[in-house]
Amino acid sequence: MKMHPYTAILLAGAVGDTLGMPVECWKPVDIKEYLGRVIAPLPPQKILPKDTPAWFTHLEKGDITDDTLLTVAIAESIIEKNGLDLTDCMNRQVDAYFANPIIDGKSIYGFGGSTVKAFENWKQGNTMLAVPPGLGNGVAMKVAALGIYAHATRKYVEALQFAGDIGTLTHTDPRAIAAGVVQSHAVYALLSGYDKQQFLDSLVEVCMEYEYPLKDNHLQTERGSLLDKIEWISANQNVDEQIAYRALGNSCNAFESVPFTWFMVQKYWDAPLEGLIVTVNWGGDADSTGAMYASLAAARHGIFFPNEWIDMLKIKDKILDVSQKLSELH
Ligand SMILES: [Mg+2]
């Protein structure tokens, strides 16, 4: 389907989100045993593998999760403010969270703990928003529109700094914040036609510039910095995914699932649909790796998956409307 690249990015993010949603937190071995292989969007599963938390039980096939809701909120803020406005951007995200039902104390769309705590603090007018440990991928998963903004307006530095600013409002770990900045850049880089080596080199450069050093009060410092992970990808571009999975991990920690996604993007550089399917079938934070992977792959390839998957999305019309307006930012 021929489509504006910005529309393709936002639709792809939602498609990746809905594709991974039913297997969030699943182990790859369980996906194999229970489902064979996820090759198209499914409803949340009624029968779950042992020790697997039940996520998204109130959702249906074609629903998206927090990743897409917050991506759209940020895009709408950019459109309404015709630029980057931190207060409006936060207000819209907080509204997107509180507009949705909380059942048994849990958001049905799977909002992450750090994000929820910061949104509650914002709503209550507290000056301290982000609370430790704040090392999830909640920043990286929602910044696609900032990469688009950088591309559309050429206000690249402003967009990346803004990604860092919105990251600081919800997350405290330097890796979580830097992951959001680097992911914004990654969308911009792939829209701009970087080749694979330029892409990988640029991830290193941006991370070096934006990642603050880890301190003793941060958790899991022994796992290394985000820069360490990107350098690992650069040195191990063609290794088997099993090795990348063991070295990087794909949990909701920013230093796992975000570099795991970048590894997959470069590994499946010219095979985006296969790359998306493989990424999701590694389980872990599958809705977020699916969303981040698909946004990046679409920045390079446009729509790369069946049109039926777009028609399945319940949020399709809203995304078409928002991305149409983003494309007018030029
Ligand atoms: Mg999610």
Bound molecules: magnesium ion
Could you say which structural class the secondary elements and strand pairing correspond to?
A: mainly alpha
Number of helices: 16
- Low-confidence runs: none
Radius of gyration: 18 Å
Q: Strand content of the residues, in percent?
A: under 5%
Main sheet specs: 2 strands, antiparallel
Name given to the CATH homologous superfamily: ADP-ribosylation/Crystallin J1
Classify the helix fraction into a percent range.
Answer: 55-70%
Q: How many beta strands in the DSSP annotation?
A: 2
Distance between the termini: 22 Å
Order of helices and strands: HHHHEEHHHHHHHHHHHH
CATH topology: ADP-ribosylglycohydrolase fold
Count of discrete structural domains: 1
Mean of residue pLDDT?
96
Q: What is the general shape?
A: globular
Properties at a glance:
single chain; 330 residues; mainly alpha; ADP-ribosylglycohydrolase fold; two-stranded antiparallel ribbon; 60% helix; binds magnesium ion
What does this structure look like?
- There is one protein chain.
- This protein is mainly α and 330 residues long.
- The protein has one domain (5-215, 224-327): ADP-ribosylation/Crystallin J1 (ADP-ribosylglycohydrolase fold, Orthogonal Bundle), CATH 1.10.4080.10.
- The chain contains 16 helices and two strands.
- It has helices at 5-20, 28-35, 66-81, 86-98, 113-123, 144-153, 156-170, 174-191, 196-210, 226-235, 241-248, 254-267, 272-281, 286-301, 307-312, 316-327; strands at residues 102-103, 106-107.
- Strands 1-2 form a two-stranded antiparallel sheet.
- β1 (102-103) and β2 form a beta hairpin.
- The radius of gyration is 18 Å and the shape is globular.
- Magnesium ion binds at residues 65-67, 110, 287-288.
